[in-house]
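Q: Given only this backbone (619 positions), what sequence would you predict?
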């Protein structure tokens, strides 16, 4: 059978015309099988809802509100959460009860107090209202609908601490104006597109609002796949049953991104993954890359990866190749989009890929569950998946022209925040490689630390850094004493609370700027004692003396403010065992229930090789 870009063309005696017919039959069978599997997926999610909750699961509360039937969506989300080891307690409001639940603060919704609220207003219901409007009302339809949605956002935000996941609107072409619908405010299509744009603009002003782009899902899967008119007319269910598992998956991707569980790194194979062909056999002049033929597909993949890198995703290479040969295209091929400066870690040797991936992970100091591994070879993929089950290994299609579309559909790189520091992450890891190289030149680790010429900044939270501070609380897992997760709005609220003191820390050295790498939140629990409510730090600065510098700064601040004691606490998680003894190492006394205490007057300050920016280095 011959690959034609979408499926295999069966050879037939009657030639091309018969071949097309065979292909259509094959494609229809494949489509029917896909639909059957989608229905099986939904049935599995329904069964998950009846499974007992496991003790080790995370527990969240979610409300699902809609102007349509949402009970199947609620089941799908709850069932998918179960597969992610999350016990989701779901409040599914009755049909078309958004106003009754949100605008009435005595409603069941506010009694339930969900951590997450899904707000789904379907386009079909909006269209029912649109057709009854006057021309003047139609012209303002997007603005008036947005005003109503923002009213919901404000009412929820002022009464409970909930993260709002607002659905955008799938486009419905009413076919009244044809293509001219794009040029007249009288068309529903025009108003829905305008409304989606206004929603994006408005969401920028609400730190607790996150958009679920249903219109994007429709563009990827098609309107006929996303929607089921029969089910809508019978049960007011606008999303087809077969699409509910995918919708649930993407909702939960937003949830876990908000809670700080995101993908941070892509590790890529080279031959037949980033370019066509085998560099060691074909040579640099014969690999497939560029604008011609299948090379364009590999170029598109590289361009997409480069955009991920610009967003802050770390790119690493893991290839079975001679290193010098493997680097040649990055250094000298004129049509390569990715260059050596885009790659944080480059590993090319003849060792097994599992060992190399583990080495890359240890160098980056991130969790395996933060890594995506791309490889065209099924053997390598299966080996990595079996040996490192936490890592995400997409099943790349056999046809390279489908790589990009397949990966984009997976939506693996969901995020709930973005800061300027994300954009310079590759540079920071390259600077770290220089530091590691320098370490080998010194006979003692203390001499090495002193040679780095480290300077730190310690300041109270400010508006300029709210985004990065919130992001650090959401993403830090290992060096995180209590693992509190905070939104930008919650960070801002802390700065207005007289009982809380806040500090962020930045660090730089002779090689570069680490940026904002540490956060501490203190709570004045009495006139004589403060509690370190949160203490978290990027693992990129471990073993630099930064934790000692931070603790010394906190105790000095407490002393200057007249407090007698500083209390700390440690809340164990599956990932923060590295800091279980931190307070004892800092000289605190161990109390009951993972609390620790230090007397301000008797506290022994630590020797570090970090100076506060602006201070003079001691000679």
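A: Predicted residues:
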């Amino acid at each position: 059978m011959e690959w034609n870009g979408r499926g295999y063309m069966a050879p037939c005696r009657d030639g091309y015309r018969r071949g097309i017919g065979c292909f259509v039959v094959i494609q229809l069978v494949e489509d029917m099988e896909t639909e059957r599997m989608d229905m099986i997926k939904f049935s599995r999610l329904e069964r998950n809802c009846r499974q007992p909750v496991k003790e080790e699961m995370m527990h969240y509360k979610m409300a699902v509100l809609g102007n349509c039937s949402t009970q199947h969506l609620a089941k799908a989300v709850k069932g998918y959460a179960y597969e992610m080891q999350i016990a989701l307690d779901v409040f599914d409001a009755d049909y078309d009860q958004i106003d009754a639940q949100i605008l009435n603060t005595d409603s069941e919704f506010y009694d339930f107090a969900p951590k997450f609220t899904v707000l789904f207003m379907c386009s079909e219901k909006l269209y029912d209202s649109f057709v009854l409007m006057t021309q003047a009302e139609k012209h303002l339809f997007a603005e008036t609908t947005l005003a109503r949605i923002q009213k919901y956002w404000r009412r929820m935000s002022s009464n409970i601490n909930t993260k709002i996941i607002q659905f955008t609107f799938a486009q419905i072409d009413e076919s009244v104006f044809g293509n001219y619908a794009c040029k007249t405010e009288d068309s529903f299509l025009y108003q829905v597109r305008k409304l989606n744009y206004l929603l994006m603009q408005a969401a920028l002003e609400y730190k607790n609002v996150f958009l679920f782009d249903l219109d994007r899902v429709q563009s990827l899967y098609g309107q006929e796949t996303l929607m089921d008119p029969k089910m809508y007319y019978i049960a007011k269910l606008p999303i087809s049953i077969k699409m509910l598992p995918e919708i649930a998956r993407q909702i939960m991707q937003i949830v876990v991104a908000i809670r700080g569980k995101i993908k941070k790194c892509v590790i890529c194979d080279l031959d037949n993954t980033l370019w066509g062909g085998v560099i060691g056999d074909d040579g640099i002049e014969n690999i497939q890359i560029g604008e011609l033929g299948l090379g364009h597909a590999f170029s598109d993949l590289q361009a997409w990866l480069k955009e991920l890198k610009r967003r802050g995703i770390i790119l690493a290479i893991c290839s079975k190749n001679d290193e010098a040969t493997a680097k040649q295209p990055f250094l000298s091929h004129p049509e390569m989009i990715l260059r050596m400066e885009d790659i944080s870690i480059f590993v090319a040797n003849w060792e097994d890929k599992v060992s190399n991936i583990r080495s890359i992970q240890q160098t980056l100091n991130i969790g395996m569950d933060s890594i995506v591994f791309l490889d065209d070879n099924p053997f390598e993929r299966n080996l990595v998946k079996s040996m490192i089950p936490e890592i995400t290994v997409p099943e790349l299609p056999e046809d390279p022209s489908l790589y990009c579309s397949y990966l984009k559909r997976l939506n693996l790189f969901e995020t709930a925040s973005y800061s300027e520091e994300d954009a310079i992450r590759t540079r920071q890891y390259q600077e770290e490689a220089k530091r590691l190289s320098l370490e080998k030149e010194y006979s003692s680790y203390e001499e090495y630390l002193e040679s780095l010429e480290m300077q730190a900044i310690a300041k109270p939270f400010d508006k300029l850094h709210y985004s990065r501070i919130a992001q650090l609380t959401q993403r830090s897992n290992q060096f995180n004493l209590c693992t509190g997760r905070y939104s930008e709005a919650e960070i801002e609220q802390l700065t207005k609370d007289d009982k809380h003191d806040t500090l962020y820390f930045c660090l730089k050295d002779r090689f570069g700027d680490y940026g904002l790498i540490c956060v501490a939140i203190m709570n004045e629990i009495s006139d004589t004692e403060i509690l370190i409510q949160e203490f978290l730090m990027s693992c990129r600065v471990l073993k630099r003396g930064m934790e000692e510098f931070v603790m010394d700064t906190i105790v000095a601040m407490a002393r200057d403010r007249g407090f007698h004691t500083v209390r700390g606490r440690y809340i164990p998680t599956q990932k923060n065992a590295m800091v279980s003894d931190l307070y004892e190492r800092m000289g605190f006394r161990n109390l009951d229930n993972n609390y620790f205490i230090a007397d301000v007057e008797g506290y022994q300050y630590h020797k570090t090789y970090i100076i506060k920016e602006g201070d003079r280095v001691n000679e």
